[in-house]
Amino acid sequence: MSAESTERRILSVLEDDAQASYAEIANRADVSKPTVRKYIKKLEEEGVIVGYSADVDPKKLAGQSIAMVGIDVASERYVEATRKLKEIAAVESLYTSSGDHMLMAEVRATDGDSLAAVIEDDILSLDGVTAAHPSFLQERLK
């Protein structure tokens, strides 16, 4: 078996269950526990594994609203606006995009009104941000 396929099998188990023990990963990836430890350490050091997280269903959280917000930014203000967007506490994740918008942000707040306030007061008020297009998440399907 190639090292690449071993890495892929280990990553596949972690993507499916980030809390899997080394023993469980080894069993499911058909390798030894020391091999799992070695590959996970290597993948973390190389920045392939950047963290471990829990998938959360926003409908199950009391007092939590989530929106994916497409953000357009004037090109001459892109670097500054991106830096400022990363500083907003309600912006959980920020991505560059090749789609309809330059940036996509996952924004979380206690309710729809608070989420709208973050978009209007914190995002749209930034110098260089020309538009914000929110899509409020309703039900997690997968």
Structure description:
Helix 1 (about 5-15) crosses helix 2 (about 20-30) and helix 2 (about 20-30) crosses helix 3. About 15% of the residues are buried. Helix content is about 40%, strand content about 20%. The protein has a 4-stranded antiparallel beta sheet with strand order 2-3-1-4. The longest helix has 14 residues, at about 5-15. The mean pLDDT is about 90. The radius of gyration is 19 Å and the shape is elongated. With about 140 residues, it is of the alpha+beta class.
Topology at a glance:
Elements: H1 3-16, H2 22-29, H3 33-45, E1 65-73, H4 78-87, E2 91-96, E3 103-109, H5 112-123, E4 129-136
Antiparallel strand pairs: 1-3, 1-4, 2-3
Low-confidence stretches: none
Radius of gyration: 19 Å
Q: SS-based structural class?
A: alpha+beta
The main pleated sheet reads as: 4 strands, antiparallel
Shape, per Cα inertia axes: elongated
Q: Multimeric state of these chains?
A: single chain
* Extended strand count: 4
Helix content range of the residues, please? 40-55%
Q: What's the number of helices?
A: 5
Strand content is 15-25%
* Average pLDDT, all residues: 89
- Strand numbers in spatial order across the main sheet: 2-3-1-4
Give the termini distance in whole angstroms. 31 Å
Order of helices and strands: HHHEHEEHE
Main attributes of the structure:
four-stranded antiparallel sheet; alpha+beta; 4 strands; single chain; 142 residues
